[in-house]
Structure formats: structure tokens, C-alpha cells
Amino acid sequence: MTISTEVQQRAATLRELINHYNYLYYVTDNPEVPDAEYDRLFSELQQLEQTHPELLTADSPTQRVGGEVLDKFAEIEHAMPMLSLDNVFDQEALTAFDKRVRDWLNTDQPQIYAAEPKLDGLAISIRYEQGVLVQAATRGDGNYGEDVTANVRTIKSVPLKLSGDNIPAIVEVRGEIFMPKDGFERLNQSQLDNNKKVFVNPRNAAAGSLRQLDSKITATRPLEIYCYGIGYIEGAARPASHTEAMSMIANWGCRISPELKKLEGLEACHRYIEQLGERRDSLAYDIDGVVLKVDNTALQERLGFVSRAPRWAIAYKFPAQEEMTTIEDIEIQVGRTGALTPVARLKPVFVGGVTVSNATLHNEDEIRRKDVRIGDQVIVRRAGDVIPEVVKVILSKRTDTVREFVMPTQCPVCGSDVEREAGEAVSRCSGGLFCPAQRKEAIKHFASRKALDVDGLGDKLVEQMVDAELIKDAADLFVLTVEQLAGLERMGQKSADNLVRAIKASKQTRFPRFLYALGIREVGEATARSLAMHFADLDALKAADSEALVEIEDVGPIVAHHIETFFQQPHNLEVINRLIDVGVSWPQEEKSHSDSALSGKTIVLTGTLVQMSRSEAKEKLLALGAKVAGSVSKKTDYVVAGADAGSKLTKAASLDISVVDEAMLLEWLKQEK
User: Fold this and answer.
1) HAMAP family, per this entry (predicted)?
2) All domains of the chain, ordered by start, with CATH?
């Protein structure tokens, strides 16, 4: 049969590509494409070779397992080949595998399988002689691997000497070396802190860590192992089943997967796969599927092998968590707190069980670190409910048409200036009061208890109002009508009337509360109080520059910059003017009493006061320059104790701190008038 030139060229291209990807994945520890793309190319080449056997060549990657052996390590020949497994990706293919097994065994009876997670790590064969670890080798090409004995000895979960009974004279214990998720996060953070290259995923990190020439480096890496079988064995009979072999390995002191199960029939296998898939993201380590093996050793021998895999085992692969696609654009998303997040608009790709068209790029620094450009081909990762992210650019596929991303200097939503402080990774919109992206959070904050304290205006009600387009900013609250509110969910005529009254009552406030309500970045209650006491007038504050602002206690250069920038935004000033126009007002604030006897003193209020509430007492003390703390410490000067004072009074006594009653508090306030 004549094979077309096109088919021959495609087979040659696939061989070249797969061998190249094998080299990057196994030799350099720098994979260029996700596993799903590799699997597709490998399956396509297999299909071509099955359809046209004449295409099969000695150097075809379908005829061997993995990649070439590094010349940096000594070469070791496996006493028994370390073959790979064929993959299936859906229940239909798994059902076909089960049918093939039963057909080969000439039985209609349900088959007994051993099932365990398919770990995303690095396969290893560890040789023990007289129970002592003498050699460890990677899979390599299946027949020859790399001698990584010194490195494997550093892994604490690998026994240096087997324990227990019936230990063979020689035995190869095989397993998967991997890096747990938390260890991977710690390692990458350490790499970043030391300005070193971060790893793409835990599998890549495990491979790079195990194959260090300096075993001292490997010893610092959080590697672990789960053993999954026995290779060569001498001086003892091979166990009658896989599950018996695993029990024997565990008795020798080797780690095996706690997820190992013995299952009867195909339906039990389907249930196991479904249940483990649901728990996949909550496991402490990455898995990419489930391995099913015919449990009976004698039946395994009857079934035998094909060229590169056993007939008695299969790997059921979960949906890929990494895929390759193209960045079509990079847009800015403004969050509820004003943070600007670059988002990659992707050519849609199926990854992690869903079609993904957007992925986070986190911030400008991450874009620069990963060198992401518009038009690049990239690897995208999605695990569980985690937001998809771009993890790596495939630089070998970059063209001259790619474009660099530039962070905007004005908010794309409202046009306000964008700020980015030195030492911070996040850029932020400065139009807090006006910006639609921040609208709901800004209004919730404005109406909160420590701000204008609008009774009855909860978070859900604010969200309803914004969604119904009844309000666009805080000033709109004060022109709401009973009729507008009565139409909202769970808001009757009486409730609407009460809320309108509460909003009207909140117009009369205090200057510090108003400043806090504006939501200026990093301006909390204490800073708002300091600003009010220093300036005593809104116009004076609006006109103040950073140089004047840093003279105030609690206001440093960064906070001063936030305040100045906030009042420079026309949109913010527009909302403030509207608030004044609708009647929001406050009594003239007296300037700080720097000469007050209480100025600079730290006071704690506890118990119930009769003549005023604790919040009123706090306001008066702050106006006199005192600091009001919530807990008693060595820095406390006085504790004001009302009725039913509790543990704070006890703590004051233990620290020998002066305690005064409400009468003394009133006397202080009277003297300072």
C-alpha cells in the first residue's frame, strides 16, 4: 500500500516533535507543552503507525519510554524494564479496556482490580540487597535509567534499610517521587526571595530537585515517595496479587498510597474514579488520574505486554489541568477595592473540565517576570475552582507580531489616576467615591457604623439598590424616596419609610466620621480623627499638600500621598460637593488640644457608663488629644471603669495601672472645656 507524502511528512514531524518534547521534559526539566498536548501528539503518531506499519522506525518514541539519559549521571540497566501505561480518557474507553481484559482471559466474570491515584511525579526504582538500599535509578528510557542513589537517600520517606520479615535477598521497590503542594509553594517562594527561577508545577519541581548533581541541594527540597509495586525480586516468591505485594512493601517500611483500593468489577472502578476526581483538588499532592491493575499476578502474566505497556493495567487520565492556547489580548479588570488586575483574553481552550477564555496575570510585575506578550502561545493552568492563570510562555513559538502590554495610567472604568506605591505590586484606581467598579463597597463603607452609621442599611440592601440603578454613589442615598425603596425585595412601605428617616438623620454627623466615610485609602478612624482635629475644616484639608499632611501625627509620606491624590480627583470632589449640597453637615471641629492634660495619654474604657455612652466618651477624649485603646497593656495610662467592669479591670490591677470611675472622667472633661 502506497503511503502519501503528506502522511509520511506528518509522521516524521510528529517523531521529531515528540522526541524534542521528551528531551525538554526528561533531560532538561523544562517542559515546553502541557501533558495534554503531548498525549494528543503521541496518540496521533500511534494511530498513524497502526494504520501504516511501514512508517514504524527504530527511533520512533512509541517504541521506547521517556527520554534520553543525561550524561551527567552514571547509567544503570534495569534488571526488569520499567514500562509505561496506556491511557484512557473517558468511561467508554475504560469499558473497552475491561472488555479486552476479560476477552483475553476468556471470562465473563467481573474482574478484580487494584486502584490507586496516578501521581504526577517522577518514577523511581530502588534496589535493596539484604534489605539495605544500594541503588536508585530513574525510569530513563525504560531499560536504562540514571543513577540518583545519593539523592534518593536524602528523601526521608525512603527507608535506607527495610524492616520486618520475609525480606528478599534482592528486590526492586518501585514508586513515584513527588513534591506535595505546600512544599512546592514554599520552594517557589524561596526561589522568588532569592531571585531564582520558579518552577512551573510540582512535577517539574520534583524532577529538577531529584536530578541535582549536588545531593545537598536535593536534601533541602520537600520530596516524598509513594511506592506502587515490585520490579525484580530474588530469594522470595512474587506475591500472588498486587494488593498483597503492596501490603508486603508497607510491612517493609515503605510508604504506599492510602488511597489504594481493591475493586470488583467495572462499576466499582467507575465509582472510585468519580469519587477520587471529586477529591482531587483537596489532596495534598497533584494527581492526574487513576491507575487500574488486574490484581491477580498469575492473570497479569497471562495477559502479558504490548511493545511499551502491560495489557493488564491502564491509566485513566483526568481532564488536563494545563493546556496550550494563545493570548489574544490583555485587558484590565478593576476590583471592588480599586485594584487593577491584568486579565489575559484567551483563544478558548478546554482545561480543568471547562472551556476557559480568560486567565489572570495577577499584576504588572508578574507579566514582566514571565515575559507575557499579546499574541504569545502560553500554558494555562486551571485546578478545581482556582481562577485560571497563565503559567508559562512558549518562547519557541513567539513571532514578530507579538505586542508588549502597557499598564494604563488612568482607570479604564472611571478615568481617575492610577497609583502604584513603591514596593507594592498592585496598581489601584484613586477614584474610590466615583468609580463604578468600586461602587458597592464604597457605599457600604460610607453607611457603616463607624462612618455615617445609617441604621437599617445593610450590605444586601446596598447591593439591591446598586443593581436596580437607584444609586450610583453615596450622595444618591440622600435623594431616595419611600416609593423607590418600597419596590425592593423584602422592603415594605413601613421599612422604606424607616430607612428614609434613618438616611435623613445620618446627615448630621461629625467631621472625623465624614472623613472616615469617604474611604480614602489607609485612612482609618484614628487618622480621620487626627485630620479633623488638625484642619477642623474640609476646605483646608482639600487644599493641603503632602508636605503639610506629614506634619500630622499618624500620617506618613504614603498616607499623605493617598490623601492628596484622593482630593485631586475631580470625580471625588464632585461627589463630596453633592453630599454637602444634599445637607450632609457637621458642627465646627475644634482644633487639637495639644496643651490638654490628657493629650498623648492612653486611656481604656470598660464597663457601662451612666452619663454618656462609651462611644461618646471616646469622641470627647479623642478631641482632647488622648488615645483610646481597646485593651489594657503596660502602655495604658488610665482605665475608666463603669458598672460591671470585667477582665480589663483585673488586668489593670495586675499591671498597677491607675483606675478611675465615671465621676472622675466627667471632672476631666469639665476641666478641659
Assistant:
1) DNA_ligase_A
2) 5-63 (1.10.287.610), 77-317 (3.30.470.30), 322-397 (2.40.50.140), 436-581 (1.10.150.20), 602-671 (3.40.50.10190)
